[in-house]
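Give me the fold.
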Amino acid sequence: MLDKRFAVVDLETTGNNPYKDKIIDLSIVFVEGNKIVGDYNHLISDADDIPSFVTELTSITLEDIKSGVKFSDIKDEVYELLANCCFVAHNIEFDLNFLKIAFKEVGINFKPNLAIDTVELSKIFFPTLNSYQLGALSKSLNLTLDNAHRAYDDAKATAELLIKIINKIQSLDRQTMIRLYNISKSLDTNVSELLFASLSENNHKDASFLVKSLSIKEVKEDQHIESHITIESLYENFLKINQFKHRDDQIKLIYTIYNSLKENKALALEAYTGLGKTEAILIASIAFSNETNQQILISTSKKILQEEMYYRSLKRLLKASNLNKLPIAMLKGKSNYINLNTMLKLLEFKDDNYEIIILKMKLLVWLTSTKTGDLGEVSLKGPEKLYYDTAHYQISDYDQYFYNRAVDHAKSSHICITNHYFMQECLTEMDSNYLIVDEAHQVLRAVNSQNETVYKYMDLKFLLSQIGANNKDRILKDYLDHNHYEKKDYLISMLSQLNKTIDEAFAQLNHQNITLATTQFTHILNLIDIILSSILNTENYESLYNYLHHFKLKIHDIVKHLKSNEYRLITDKNFQKTTLLVNNQSKELLYSDLESLKGQLLISGTLEVNESFNHLDEWFNGEFDTKIIKNDNLFDSVNLFIPNDVHDLNDREAYIIDLVDYISMYYSIRQEKMIVLFTNYKLLNDVYQFIIESELFDFPILKQNKNDSANKLLLQYNQLQNCLLLATESFTEGINFENLNDRTIFLTKLPFPVPTGDGFRHFYKKDLPDAVFMFRQILGRLKRNENDSGRIILFDNRLLNKPYKNAFLKYFEEENIIYDDRSAFNDMLTRL
């Protein structure tokens, strides 16, 4: 097939329906011998009208196509050009269907002998990319795409993509290629023919490094060369690569961190937002570690921030300082690294489900190049994640090849970066004597979260559903195919009892009948034991046995904690939304590890509350130093406007009307994009629905959903000239808005509940610090440097007359706090 001529096709059309819409732009770019060898292009004049959004997207007008040709005039020419070629397109279903219908309308039956889709191939052979849209691929792979959504430019970029894919295929080892070829036979497109053609050329070498029969990239540690490193030289390199100016406060921060490490201190350090804490931490850590040969563990709040700190900050700084061989590492928990036995189990799946086929192929390709085995590199989502987990639960031997490799590498590193949720694992695995906790205002919340294992009704039901109850389901079917058919009814009956008992157990939990719930969960354990004993040592029993045993361990953990009264319950009117949280003692292990450290530093832009660090007593479990690097003028160009003419949130409909009215006023005067932050998704969705139904705005409305990536949402927001973004306050954590030095954020409510009774004790210990941290983080998105200005529009007047007022308004100038009505709001905006 590689000696074939590839016809790479792209069409622009008046819409997405091939039976009603028309082709307006057609291009074919030909690839032969893995080179572009020609092209064919025409504007098509069959359309009587072109929708405005199509013109906006393609720049093609009705006037443009009048000079084009009718498809009927070029039908024979196009057919001849495509005949005997392999038909290629990016999202082949769209282009091929349109061409088939267009040919059919002129009396030609067009069906290519061979067809491949570059979207499909890109997912397989470039498995670590975040997006497979042609524009994103062009940026990632340096394809030529000058005018996106014009047929020739898109076809040419797709042709270049095809060439890169073929080059990638030809670089793979023979063992991986054979596996890919066998799996690809179930695909509808002709990928298997492409792979077979490459294998037939006999240019694929044997794998140079195999683990458990899988081709893996072998990684050899670089030999570290001792270098003389100073804080001054590192700081100068940091300023140079970022084109920043020297700041005395930033140097002060670097030396504060460095001296804290040198003096083996326990220190809580607040440094104002926008000072450059990440780079200060890294510069101080590199200098100290190189000088003392001591390892430093750095933890930040989220995996995404961990990766940014490692790749965008640390690696970039070391490269600029010619310190590429300084040993550094990034370490996550075990579940983040691919389990090779799980991979082998996944390869055994005979299911011809499309998602499983693509998943198996992309993981095989990825394994040949990954240095880490970190599953985050391939971002398994939705069905892919579920299929991987299903395979994982069927194995008994939990291979930890990549995790162990990551730990070994981390142990020999000078600096290791992790995140708060895996800090305890890192401290247990490694011999670090020094710990720096960045974004430390989040650490107690993360530790408390990790201290509990969450059991949800829907999660347990899903696990059981993967076993199945009929011949179409994979695990049960695979077992029954190797055993006597009479076992089927028995197993289905037992699995049905399991399902019903889970329903009954969670119904009792929801009514807080703990004794009855414990009895039901104990009955589940007995049912599982009966099933396990009945299938033990029968034919092909291992997968079903291991999967049920994994399920049994979860139920056993539930029973243990219900009996010892170590649990929390979150109930709901619908028992299927019941959540059980049980203590797993990870907090106790962490605090034990913390006591053995020589020195540690907690640092954040928001760490003290009401001029106190008392909320950190539990963390340090003893005396600790405190320091604040502050900027009294930090928010002198930030206004806080609190409306006094809005309805209470209890009058929900009137409150929403008031909120949208203020948003509308803002846009009518300022004509710029806005962000509205909510404390819950229910109000967010209600406001979104009201805006959509009222059709008030003629610009895009972006809405955060529970599973949305903050980075993806931020990318959309930064790219748009005008838009309204509705998000939760969590959206602002660790993100930066681009190309704006004047920003406005609407905040619907302070992020804490109204305390009552005994709740006040919990409020001042936990809710208030969390709310203050979140509020200051939001402020930090407005004010990143001395030139920035902005305003918070807060629809919550609680902080104006409460004892905790100063905790929130610490840096605000009195004259910048405005409590007034719509008329004053209008005046404020007009004066800007």
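The radius of gyration is 30 Å.
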